[in-house]
Amino acid sequence: MSQPPITTASGIPVADNQNSMTAGPRGPVLLQDFHLIEKLQHFNRERIPERVVHAKGSGAYGTFTVTNDITQYTKARLFAEVGKQTETFLRFSTVGGEKGSADTERDPRGFAVRFYTEEGNWDLVGNNTPVFFIKDGIKFPDFIHTQKRDPQTNLKSPTAMFDFWSRTPESLHQVTTLFSSRGTPDGYRHMHGFGSHTYSLINAAGERVYVKWHFLTQQGIRNLSAAEATRIAGSDPDYAQRDLFNAIAKGDFPRWDVKLQVATEADLAAWEARTGWNPFDLTKVWPHKDFPLIPVGVLELNRNPLNYHAEVEQAALSPANVVPGMGYSPDKMLQSRLFAYHDAQLYRVGTNHQHLPVNAPRCPFHNQQRDGAMAIANGGAAVNYDPVQAAGSNPQGMGHGEPALPQSGAAGRYDARGKEDDYTQAGDLFRLMPKDEQQNLFDNLAGPLSQVSAEIIERQLGHFDLADRAYGAGVRAALKARGVNVG
Known about the structure:
- It is a single chain.
- The chain has helices at residues 34-44, 140-147, 158-166, 172-178, 226-235, 239-249, 265-275, 308-313, 332-348, 424-432, 435-449, 454-467, 469-481; strands at residues 57-66, 85-94, 109-117, 120-127, 193-194, 199-202, 208-217, 255-263, 294-303, 326-327.
- The protein is globular, with a radius of gyration of 25 Å.
- By secondary structure, the protein is an alpha+beta fold.
- The mean pLDDT is 93.
- The longest helix is centred in the last third of the chain and has 17 residues, at 332-348.
- Strands 1, 2, 3, 4, 5, 6, 7, 8, 9 and 10 form a ten-stranded antiparallel sheet that branches.
């Protein structure tokens, strides 16, 4: 298929795309050569700021199909009937690395799903782990700084990582996950995804339940050993991107079973009274024996993007995007992310990033937002204001119709650290691991720990001991095997 003739961005035909306009055969180059100037100007500006976190990612389109009726929990129309399909977009990513980093680094993986529903976009922005390192968004910038580059050396710093983690016992559950074999998944197709946070669903009667979302890979869990991950990072740093793209291109469409855990407010209050665990704490899971998984549907990825920059790099998801029949929870980390993600996209992509095709809803939309950069769908001749209804609003049953979320207590800064149990669930995870997986955990931890001070090592070992004495003993043995003198 022949390419159309080259033009400027304004559609003006270009006579010669091979030679600059010069004064004589040897120059100098003339400033009036607008085609040259436009090409160089655009080239200088063709990168948007990379994401501060989740910078390197891969994406694909697909479908979500309802397989089980959950209308008793939610009025959201995408779940209205078994068999109903909704178009989706899923962006996978590593968390701490830059755009040029390797896909196989030890790192959580982003698992961000957009559902293009008839009531607007629902974004479930999660990870491949059901928990996280911290429980309050005010510590998120501090934590991420420890995963980035040292301000003096510009090198990744095990000292910064473990200094933070060793002073933050709440991180132990996620640290245990990260340094297990699941810290280096074999591509994106062979890992689970989680909404991680607690969200809520609202049914037609206005009743709220709290939920956690799970995406369980039908391809089976598959992980890389530390040695394999390092080898692949050197030979094919884009390993996960290549694997995902090629699988979809040849028709081997990856699928995930979508399930959820459900609990009423009374259920969670009783569970918290029994266990002492805050059900809205992102460093905790809801055990399946207490809150069984309920099947909902199947997510399939079946179409690759045609333009990576337009459809993956500029994809702008936010957990604040929930549709009628859905809501949030008192999870402190979620509350921070509801602001931070949209704000990041405003800075990174632009004021009207929702106008871009990958971000635009598939249903009609209307508001009074106008102008700014990239104002593609700018309202036309419609008025750009909505008057106050002097007689009071008169809801027509549309929109969220979300019931009031109960609140209690005086406004203030509350710190329960030192009073909460940060060790039992981490120990439970450790005890679930087979012996060979436990040994991988010891060895994976001993590598970076062997590069930090004795003070940090002892502080971190103390946390392992409190999770399980065998956990601490195993890491000590692995450190001694590396020549590190530990108590």
